[in-house]
Amino acid sequence: AQTVTQSQPEMSVQEAETVTLSCTYDTSESDYYLFWYKQPPSRQMILVIRQEAYKQQNATENRFSVNFQKAAKSFSLKISDSQLGDAAMYFCAYRNPTSGTYKYIFGTGTRLKVLA
Amino acid sequence: DAGITQSPRHKVTETGTPVTLRCHQTENHRYMYWYRQDPGHGLRLIHYSYGVKDTDKGEVSDGYSVSRSKTEDFLLTLESATSSQTSVYFCAIAGTSGYEQYFGPGTRLTVT
Q1: Residue B74 pairs with which residues in a beta bridge?
Q2: SS3 readout for B19-88
Q3: Rounded CA gap, A73 and A34, in Å?
Q4: B73-78 and B19-25: which strand pairing?
């Protein structure tokens, strides 16, 4: 069974600095999708970034980028120039598009604090 | 933003009472999901639907049932609420060709 692990329950970063959130996953599949979701205090789940496993190029969305290491089954999120609005829970998620069930598996989350 | 609403947004109920949470979407997406979120556990899948009247269990389905009689509505029922079902419940949707899920605003349920 696939699993997603976020080993950092909480992280802190100084405003304007860079922080990296870790995510590892376990799967025997070769084709899958990985996601990072942000959950601010408002509780709304917001998609931050998406990575297709068949793409070697790391996904980037403005200040957010990933380091996707397929062989190591690692999918870390880098936030550059951190802002106070980046403070949130961040969840890593996995989906296997060939499973036919469209199920997603989530990690337990990392709480990011941004210090002014 | 994806058109997903959840009702009610907050509910307090007593142990043993039935509770129904509603998820409504305007996106005509095929797949709908119910999750619960608890500290230290992330999001755990309760049930999901892959079409009208087509549903399946997730990892924490005990004590919950679902129904989907229309594409746009997915109901989650707690037949007899227990204190362990106190949680925040999220509905999510995904399209057939889509990759990511879109989430509703969540429902905070407290069982006393």
Answers
A1: B23
A2: EEEEEEECCCCCEEEEEEEECCCEEEEEEEEEECCEEEECCCCCCEEEEEEECCEEEEEECCCCHHHCEE
A3: 11
A4: antiparallel
In chain A, pLDDT over 70 holds for what percent of residues?
Answer: 97
What is the DSSP track for A8-39?
A: -SEEEEETTS-EEE--EEE-S-SS-EEEEEEE
Q: Do B102 and B4 touch, CB atoms closer than 8 A?
A: yes
Residue B39: pLDDT band (50, 70, 90) is confident
For B:88-107, CB contacts with A below 8 A are 88, 90, 92, 94, 99-103, 105-106
In B, minimum Cα distance to A89 occurs at: B42
Residue type, A96: N
Would you say B54 and B30 are in contact if contact means Cβ atoms under 8 Å apart? no
pLDDT tens digit sequence for A55-84: 888 999 999 999 999 999 999 999 999 999
Residue appearing with tokens 């009702």: B7
Interatomic CA distance for residues A78 and A90, integer angstroms: 12
The interface residues of chain A toward chain B in range 56-85, judged by CB-CB distance below 8 A, are none
Residues 6+ apart with CB under 8 A from A1: none
* Residue with the two structure tokens 């006393």: B112
Least confident of A28-37, A67-76, B18-27: A28-37
